[in-house]
Amino acid sequence: MVLLQQLETLRYLHLHLGQEDLAEADLGAIREAGLTLGISTHDDDELATALRAKPDYIALGPIFPTTLKSMRFAPQGIPKITEWKKRVGDIPLIAIGGIKLEQAPEIFAAGADSIAVVSDVTQNSDPDARVRAWLQLHAEAA
After folding, report:
1. For residue 62, cis peptide bond before it (omega within 30 degrees of 0)
2. Which pLDDT tens digits describe the chain residue by residue (142 residues)?
3. What are phi and psi of 116, to 5 degrees?
4. How far is CA 71 from the centre of its chain?
5. What is the pTM of this model?
6. Phi/psi of residue 41, nearest 5 degrees
7. For the sheet containing 36-41, what is the strand order?
8. Could you tell me which of 119, 113, 124 has the C-alpha nearest to residue 84?
9. Nearest CA to 107 among 57, 69, 72, 141?
10. Is 17 exposed, middle or buried (0-12, 13-18, 19+ CB in 10 A)?
11. What residues have CB less than 8 Å from 95, skipping those under 6 apart?
12. Are 15 and 26 in contact (CB under 8 A)?
């Protein structure tokens, strides 16, 4: 509850939870605070748990091997995006994990509504240019 009070004070609008956090989250308080809720998923059980929480979006990952953090899950691959999108229906699906700009068209074609990236920007020799390229891709897709 302290975290929610801090979020309200700072005027945050969105909250993303991992599965470990979701287990102890007060979903009623999150909704009452007016926060949108996103939840990470990595396997069938986690997706079922996430769907029961009625999130505003679902994240699936890692799609490819990632160096950002150690993962206990193997890369999901692009076909899993199509499978997950069928299962989540109208809930936005966010693909994350090891994704590079050049892979984005295939990921969107597979059913992802959005892509979250970190390493593709931070490990690029020109991070500013890479962000501009991602923004350009998004503008062209819109």
Report:
1. yes
2. 445 555 555 567 889 999 989 989 999 999 998 899 999 999 999 999 999 999 999 999 999 998 766 767 789 999 999 999 999 999 999 999 999 999 999 999 999 999 999 999 999 999 999 999 999 998 887 6
3. -105, 130
4. 15
5. 0.87
6. -135, 150
7. 14-17, 36-41, 57-60, 93-96, 114-116
8. 113
9. 141
10. buried
11. 59, 60, 61, 63, 81, 107, 112, 114, 115, 116
12. no
Place of tokens 């490819």: 64
Residue tagged 């899950």 (tokens): 73
Distance (Å) of CA 133 to CA 54, 68, 102, 104, 120? 33, 21, 10, 11, 11
The tokens for 139 are 């503008």
Q: Which two tokens stand for residue 42?
A: 């990595």
